[in-house]
Amino acid sequence: MTKSQYLKSFRQHIAMLAQYKTHIEVDMLKNLILDNAGHIKELNETLPFIELLIDCSERQASAGDITKLADAASAYWFAYLHSEAIHFAVYGQKTCFDVMTEMCADKGGDIVHYESQELLLSHIMENPDDCVVVIYDYSATDILHQEDKLFAIISYSYLMGEEGINKLFNQDYLGYLDAEFKKLYSTTTTVNLVTGSSHAWHAVPVALSNNTVNLSMFSADLLYAKSVILKSLNSSPVQNYILFLSPYFLYFETAKGRSAFSQLIFHTLRAFCLLNSIDYPYEQKNSENVIQSGASHVKPLSAINDDLQDIIVATLHSPEEMQRIRNKVEVNREQEFINQVKSISGKLNPDNLKSKQMLMDHLESEAFTKAAAARGELHAAQARWQRSMAYNKKNLEDIAFEVQKHQRQLVMVIPPFAPEYMQQIPQSMLRELKAFTLSLCEKYAGRLIDLSTDNEFTYRDFLDGDHLNGAGGRKVMARLENAGLDFATPLTY
After folding, report:
1. pLDDT single digits (tens) 273-292
2. Structural domains of the chain, ranges and CATH numbers in brackets
3. Which residues contact 256 (CB under 8 A, 6 or more apart)?
């Protein structure tokens, strides 16, 4: 058993001991210690811990005895980590490495930046006894499958809080949004503004209309749609606000996502807002992300379970020191982000993505059926934030109110999906969406167009399990035109 495996087993056994407080757990811990004597550290906490362990294993220990043993094991565990020159393998953007260097400046240990996963995995294989803690950013893939060979795998965003995620953005998407937004103010006959999720982006290809701006995002979040709509109401000629609502829309907030994809979306939107003097609608300094891992005193053993991230952080710095480091790094990185956005503002190509809206690719029938079911299941599982419903309802009603106040029209559209997709969405979710949107239509003179069960859309109309291809986009626009919307008015500059 390597040192890393020993420490992981040790943590597991003392966690079980704290939870169940049984004599069998004492025996298992004792056997682990005896079998791995070479990994025992000579620390001030070592002798009391081992003496208690021997004592408790030689008689029928009471619950009080085991509690004392758990406390001693906890003290030993933390002392071991503090004394260990842990190998921090930092993978991904160099910013990760810079931050870790700042964090560990006086902590000893080995901190190495690996620019390729191959080099990192090679080190892991060649040094199996190292206690390797991998700090990774959004781009890690193969590394995450090596957990059995590592002491710990920690997301860089966890260490730095939400603001610490690498502020990368999708330049193609940024170029597309920037060009579309500027169309609002360079013409006098922009009739339609499309917002909503990625389903909206695929459903209304801008190449098929000369009077429409499509500012939908690559995910689902009403706060961004609300920000764009309110901005345009005051200073653009738009008459119809076409808002696409996926079946799970009321229950979902991309802003709550912590995935690399979510962060890439938000940094792109932030760059877009920066370029166009729009108030960025998301404040992601969420109190839930502030690291609360305790302090220099011994952590209660009952908490030493799978929260190894907290434990590693606690061995490095107090929460206050972590916050100071985060603030220092963030000031520098914020200015770097602004400079990066400004440097590429004149080099963006809006056409790179427009052509993708017109792709005619599609899956074959059987593959599409499976993909649609899988996507529906995924989205139903993601839409789990019951608290989001009240928040989303408020934002949606704010949009409806403002659009009516400015004497424009709000058209809400539920896009088409395969039956296999819709079968995965809870009926209660669908009923709630339709009931609420219909109530808004009645209250604010809006319209609801539901294409979710339109059976004339086939697998040939979809790019993947739920997004339309160019053919599907043409069909959607034809449906909307039949409902009275106009996509053909020539633009006047």
Report:
1. 888 888 777 754 332 322 22
2. 3-83 (no CATH), 186-254+350-482 (3.40.50.1110)
3. 385, 388
